[in-house]
Amino acid sequence: MRYKKKWYKKVLLFLFFAAALIWTLVPVYIVISNSFRRTLDMKIMPPKLLFTPILSHYEKILTLDNFSKYFRNSAVIAVSVTALTILLGTLAAYGMKLFKSRLGQHLSNVLLLGKMVPAITILIPLFMMMNRLKLTGTFAAPILAHSCMSLPFVTWLMASFIRDIPTELLESASVMGCSRMKAFWLIIVPLLKPAVASATILVMQTSWNELVFSLQLTNLKTYPLTVGVARYVGAVSVDWGKCSAAAAITMVPIIIVGFAMQKYLVSGMTAGAVKG
């Protein structure tokens, strides 16, 4: 009887995850398949699973000077935001580790409340601030805006990892003559590879896909991919083939970053599973 219950649970669990996977991947399949379809084939309902692929949509996108500029702008913004938030978030979490009080222990959880604030609620004051500082239309505006939204989460994530690092390691480094900053770079940072990998994926994906701030804080020279692809949508018609090709290319960098950081995530999850 117990075996039957376990069997049913496994089947239901498998069906649930299979449905979630299909729900997630079907939109991705539609975007990628439409990027290889002719415009007339996209209008056929139900859509054909077998079709003759074409590359004309990608040729249109890659020959546009604006697309390469949008891609470069997104790379500059996303990489800058990721580096800035991880550096500041790790230093802040390290300070909480050294701050041995109840306030320091719970400060990271309080900071996480900043992540719950919707971006649209701070858009107007942020725009006014950037406008007064004459930063609108520059890379600094979206970089600072994205960093402000991601920094609370990164600080909380790093603090949760640093909290598990034994204090004895820092005390031993202090006895050997290491300063706090030297101990940070020699002891803390090497132990945070899984946390850095997780933060890199999440922050870069968030910054790469962000639209609200970028739409208001950038101009023609600094538009990222999200704003650039949105501009391909015309007032009367939409070139779905070109938009699908642009969206498919936009996915590639995040997928590459995810695979590049995968080994650090796996090593971090299995580090505590092996008994010494």
UniProtKB/TrEMBL annotation:
<dbReference type="InterPro" id="IPR050901">
    <property type="entry name" value="BP-dep_ABC_trans_perm"/>
</dbReference>
<feature type="transmembrane region" description="Helical">
    <location>
        <begin position="183"/>
        <end position="204"/>
    </location>
</feature>
<keyword id="KW-0812">Transmembrane</keyword>
<feature type="domain" description="ABC transmembrane type-1">
    <location>
        <begin position="71"/>
        <end position="261"/>
    </location>
</feature>
<dbReference type="InterPro" id="IPR035906">
    <property type="entry name" value="MetI-like_sf"/>
</dbReference>
<feature type="transmembrane region" description="Helical">
    <location>
        <begin position="12"/>
        <end position="32"/>
    </location>
</feature>
<keyword id="KW-0813">Transport</keyword>
<dbReference type="InterPro" id="IPR000515">
    <property type="entry name" value="MetI-like"/>
</dbReference>
<dbReference type="Pfam" id="PF00528">
    <property type="entry name" value="BPD_transp_1"/>
</dbReference>
<keyword id="KW-0472">Membrane</keyword>
<feature type="transmembrane region" description="Helical">
    <location>
        <begin position="75"/>
        <end position="95"/>
    </location>
</feature>
<dbReference type="GO" id="GO:0055085">
    <property type="term" value="P:transmembrane transport"/>
</dbReference>
<feature type="transmembrane region" description="Helical">
    <location>
        <begin position="107"/>
        <end position="127"/>
    </location>
</feature>
<keyword id="KW-1133">Transmembrane helix</keyword>
<comment type="similarity">
    <text>Belongs to the binding-protein-dependent transport system permease family.</text>
</comment>
<keyword id="KW-1003">Cell membrane</keyword>
<dbReference type="GO" id="GO:0005886">
    <property type="term" value="C:plasma membrane"/>
</dbReference>
<feature type="transmembrane region" description="Helical">
    <location>
        <begin position="139"/>
        <end position="162"/>
    </location>
</feature>
<feature type="transmembrane region" description="Helical">
    <location>
        <begin position="245"/>
        <end position="266"/>
    </location>
</feature>
<protein>
    <submittedName>
        <fullName>Carbohydrate ABC transporter membrane protein 2, CUT1 family</fullName>
    </submittedName>
</protein>
